[in-house]
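Input sequence (191 aa), recorded before submission:
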Amino acid sequence: MEQLPSVRCSPSFFRKLIEALNMRQRAKISKLGWGGLLQFYTDCPDTTEVLVYLLDKLNPESMILEVGNEGGLRITESCVRNVLGIPDGDMDPPSSTEQENKIALVEFKKSVIAELDKDVKCNHLIGLLRKSNVDNALSVRIFFVVAFNKLLFPALDNNIRGQDAFLTKDFSQLEILTGARLFYMSCVMLL
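Predicted structure, C-alpha cell format:
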C-alpha cells in the first residue's frame, strides 16, 4: 500500500499559541478581523483519523462533503469564513518568489532571535510569547506565522516557511486579506 504524505496540521498546538497571548495581543488580532481564530478550541488529540475520514468524504470537483443523507455539505469561501471567523477582505494574498520568501524568512529569524542557519520551530515562537519580552507588533506577527503554519496552511514540513514569513511581513494588510479564500484555495490544492 502506498503511503501518502502527511500534512502537519496541529490544532492542539495552535491552542497553546492562543493561551500564550495576552489581552492586548488578542485585541490587536481581533481588530485585524481574525478574532474568530481566538475562539478556536480543541480538546481532541492531534490525530489524522478524522481528517482522513473527511477527506475521503470530500468530493474535490464539487467541494461537497458527502456525509449524511441530505445531499452533503458544500464547502465554500463563505462557509470557511463563518466557521473559522476569518476575514474575507478584498485583497488577494500577495504572490512571492522563492527568493522573496527566503529574504522574508531571514528577516523573520533575525526578529525572533533565531540562528540564521537553523530552522525556526513553533515551540521557540511560543516561548517568546510566554516570556512577554516581544513587542506587540512582533507578537501579532508570531501569532499569524504560527496560525498559517499549524492551522490554516499546513504543509509537509514542521518548520516555519519562507511563505509564512512573507505573508506576515506586513501584517497590517491582514485585515483586508481574503483569508477565507486563501484557506479555501489551500484546501483545494491539498486535494
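Checked by second reader. The first helix runs from residue 11 to 20.
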